[in-house]
Amino acid sequence: MNPETGPQAIAPLGPDAPVILEMSHISKGFGAVTALVDVSIKLRQGEVLALVGDNGAGKSTLIKILSGFHQPDTGTITSKGKEVSFASPRDARSHGIETVYQDLALVGDLSVFHNMFLGREYKKRVLGLNLLDNQKMRELSRQYLDNLGISIPSVNSTVDLLSGGQRQCVAVARSIYASPSILILDEPLAALGVRESAHVLGLIQKLRRERNVSVILIVHNYNQIFEVCDRINFLHAGEIVFDASTSETSEEELIRIVKSGLGRKAIAAAAAEAGPLPA
Ligand SMILES: Nc1ncnc2c1ncn2[C@@H]1O[C@H](COP(=O)(O)OP(=O)(O)OP(=O)(O)O)[C@@H](O)[C@H]1O
Ligand SMILES: [Mg+2]
Predict the structure, then answer these.
(1) Which is the closest atom of ligand 1 to the Cα of 36?
(2) 188 closest CA partner among 110, 106, 113, 93
(3) Which of 32, 124, 148, 162 has an alpha carbon within 20 to 30 A of 11's alpha carbon?
């Protein structure tokens, strides 16, 4: 494990870290499909929360509700103690919630620096005209990506020409640049090589060390969860069946729970019913 990003490098989240976001009793269906059933999650200041579950478990639906892309059928969202509702992604962003979607939402035929400032472009007035300040955006993008240690050939190149890993890094960097209070990353490590994964994990670990931004991370690799996350919520068939801090569970327990699709209590009850194992 990398000592820079390893969990030993990070102080545990204090017990008094305030809850900054709560989703309570959220349900969501799409026609005949029930995607979420009475889901409740809590996110604390500076916490990195892993959301895990099988394909189709409802992970993306849950974070799309939080990022204003979908509206829940029932349930409430409380942000910093106040009930909120997000009618659109713009609405969620105005509450400090930034999301990197599974499909990234970068514009392939625009340059890296235009993507970095998509929707929040710098403008300048020239001869009474309102023009894009490309020079400023180019310079700020270059500095910002350099500071994060993200190496791409040029901020002028179009996103289409970048590797998958570089694209992922640009998408994550763009979201961090917006200074969110909550950053949501939907499978940021999917399709990344070892080096690129380590880089994105390093960015998450940096945020975790500073404890200013709370992160919800959807990820399938349990090793990586234990490396960078404070807490795990396991979503199974639209329901949260397991919620534990990474310090009070283990990869082995998580694998057992994910395989069974049951929480701790249900596993214990099933074991009690089955009786002692034959010697
Ligand atoms: N826009 C939609 N319209 C109809 N059904 C949808 C829509 N979005 C998601 N679903 C369905 O809701 C369920 C949950 O999907 P979701 O994308 O949230 O799963 P996921 O946990 O993110 O899976 P994966 O790991 O494959 O990304 C699935 O059965 C899916 O087919
Ligand atoms: Mg998904």
Answers:
(1) 14
(2) 106
(3) 148
- pTM of the predicted structure, to 2 decimals: 0.87
Q: Whose CA is nearest to atom 1 of ligand 1?
A: 30
What is the structure's pLDDT at 166? 84
CA–CA separation, 37 vs 242, rounded Å? 14
Same domain membership, residue 230 and residue 151: no
Q: How far is CA 208 from the centre of its chain?
A: 12
Domain assignment present for 160: yes
On whether both 14 and 80 belong to a single domain, the answer is yes
pLDDT digits (tens, 9 = 90+) for 107-128: 989 999 999 998 889 999 999 9
Each residue of 144-163: pLDDT tens digit? 998 888 888 899 999 999 88
End-to-end CA distance of the chain: 38
Ligand nearest to the CA of 53: 1
